[in-house]
Design brief:
359 residues; mainly beta; 18 strands
Length: 359
């Protein structure tokens, strides 16, 4: 595999410079607040790596994410008609898609400064395709998009799905500030390519790029999280960048780099219950490279340029503490603005759920 670098290397360099400095931070007992006693001390259910733990604490959790896409496809910020999609040399488009992700979330703090994390994942994608034009042969392979030998005829639909183990993230969070009015920590995670990128249709052609359970590349994920507030209202913000350290995976491509950021508020209803509000922004580049085996070109998700874009979402949720040890969170997300690369089915809504047990 070849390795590549880009502007995100600057973010990684800054992160690596910050982490050693954390060892000099003031982490005396007078500056450490008890974590886990109130429902508003955590971010919304859809956040990852938003908190650290005290020395000796161990957490086991399960997170679940469900996203739905569909309706009229978009090019950029505008809807595009089936006729225009056909004029772009496609015979099939996405009618609807669901994406489900379940994660086992493990966190352990050997001391008050460092929290180690591990997140194995399971993925499931289901896509319904709609025929919009005449079929054609491309690159010597059928324009197959489902489980048969041909895609749906105009007006017909075909549904296919893929599921399996996804990639695994492992990393560490380093506390930089931990007081009653301000908290901050830096993180660095590695995504291990445990998920498959070789899933194929029944006729031997690769499935759409976005339906592979894994990325097939080793990825680096630096992050920075800050928060503060009081017992009436707390706030938080996080920036997270994911970039691949490899130029291609074994199937010939790699997913685009991704920048995620969120700001949120949590307001307690009681020590054991809080409501959350969040604004989330994602910027992801298109797929790079090309499948090195037979694959279709009849639909937008068969082509690399139809992935990624800029998405702004708003979310509302709630966090609960049960019996002082169990944490339960739920969050609903709705897109506010979507500027999509190429031609894609836009996101309709998303749901995030989690449950965790402290030890």
């Amino acid at each position: 595999m070849k390795y590549h670098g880009n502007g995100s290397a600057l973010a990684l360099s800054l992160m690596l410079a910050v982490i050693p400095a954390a060892a000099q931070a003031d982490h005396s007992e007078d500056h450490i607040i008890a974590i886990g006693q109130r429902a508003d001390e955590r971010g919304p259910a859809g956040m990852m790596g938003d908190h650290v733990h005290r020395g000796g604490e161990f957490m086991v959790g399960i997170s679940y994410m469900h996203d739905e896409y569909g309706g009229a496809n978009q090019r950029g910020t505008r809807k595009i008609s089936d006729h225009m999609i056909a004029m772009a040399d496609y015979t099939v488009r996405v009618k609807s898609m669901t994406m489900d992700m379940a994660m086992l979330h493990l966190m352990w703090a050997p001391n008050d400064r460092i929290t180690f994390t591990a997140m194995p994942m399971w993925m499931r994608m289901e896509m319904t395709m709609l025929g919009i034009g005449d079929h054609m042969e491309m690159d010597g392979a059928s324009s197959m998009v489902g489980h048969g030998h041909h895609g749906p005829m105009p007006g017909e639909t075909m549904t296919h799905s893929v599921s399996g183990i996804g990639d695994t993230e492992v990393g560490a969070l380093v506390s930089l500030a931990r007081g009653p009015d301000l908290t901050a920590h830096a993180g660095l995670a590695v995504s291990i390519p445990t998920g498959s990128v070789s899933r194929k249709n029944h006729n031997g052609t690769f499935v759409h790029y976005g339906m592979q359970p894994g990325s097939g590349t080793w990825d680096l994920i630096p992050s920075f999280t800050v928060g503060g507030g009081n017992e009436q209202l707390r706030w938080g913000a996080q920036a997270r960048y994911r970039f691949s350290a490899e130029d291609r995976n074994k199937s010939g491509f790699r997913f685009g780099d991704r920048f995620d950021s969120s700001i949120w508020l949590t307001r307690p209803l009681s020590p054991a219950a809080a409501v959350t509000a969040r604004i989330a922004y994602q910027d992801r580049s298109k797929v790079e490279g090309h499948y090195n085996g037979a694959h279709g070109h009849a639909s937008p998700p068969d082509r690399q340029e139809n992935y990624g874009g800029k998405v702004l979402q708003a979310g509302l949720g709630a966090n609960l503490i049960v019996d002082g040890k169990w944490r339960i969170g739920a969050e609903a997300m709705l897109p506010v603005n979507q500027d999509l690369n190429g031609i894609q089915a836009p996101k309709n809504f998303g749901i995030n759920l989690n449950i965790a047990r402290m030890f």
